[in-house]
Amino acid sequence: MQGLVNQLLPAIALNKLRHQDFQFNKRELTDEFEDVTILFADIKGFTEFSDKVKNPKKVLKMLKDLFEGFDKLCLKNKVFKLYTIGDCYVVLSFVVAERQNTTEEKIQEAKNVVNMGLEMIETISHVRKDYTFLNMRIGIHTGKKIIGGILGTHVVRYDVYGNDIRIANKMESSGEPAKVMISQSTKDWIEKEQNHNYSIVWAKEVQIKSKGKSTEIIQSYFINKKAYYQ
């Protein structure tokens, strides 16, 4: 049971549960986080695949095998899987119970998420040997401030909110198959480390439309390991 709880909630939320008299019906477990890196991944071609395949078990097996591989990558790269919705996979950068909010910590978190994204692309490239029409878009953004907390009193779920979540999602939907696209903010954090091991090339301007607000233009970039684009 403890292992299941550890998978459903990030360590920072679990730490609160252990150190306070928390009751779900009071909905007290909320936090604000700064400079959190968020990843959205979407499987291109999945809808067409699921519509064409007559055996639904084949669809579920493909997703199960793929997502189990991604789950292992989360542990390897020290990131937290927030949730999956259909063929969408969402990751957060923080896993530690006590974030120190140091520059070095935030740089490492951004690198962890980028590495996660690059390894997800590598993983699905192997799956493409059996499912040639499948591919994956990945978008990453480092938000200035997000709100996270537990929703519900019976069916409990940890979720995050804020405009930066929308930007991360837009990085994915505006991206290209088999590539990891990052926002200007994530690029800035990666480049705070001298001699980092990434190649970063400009991709496009991405428009973010907010309700009641003017359109925001965000620069985006494709990222890979160094020498990939050289």
From TrEMBL:
Top-level taxon of the source organism: Eukaryota
GO cellular component: plasma membrane
Keywords of the record: ATP-binding, Lyase, Magnesium, Membrane, Metal-binding, Nucleotide-binding, Transmembrane, Transmembrane helix
Membrane topology of the entry: Multi-pass membrane protein
Compartment list: Membrane
One GO MF term attached to the UniProt entry: ATP binding
Gene Ontology terms describing biological process: adenylate cyclase-activating G protein-coupled receptor signaling pathway; cyclic nucleotide biosynthetic process; intracellular signal transduction
SMART domains on file: CYCc
Guanylate cyclase domain sequence ranges: 37-172
Class of the enzyme per the UniProt entry, highest EC level: lyase
Catalytic activity: ATP = 3',5'-cyclic AMP + diphosphate
Listed EC numbers: 4.6.1.1
Name under which the protein is recorded: adenylate cyclase
Organism: Ichthyophthirius multifiliis
Upper lineage: Eukaryota, Sar, Alveolata, Ciliophora, Intramacronucleata
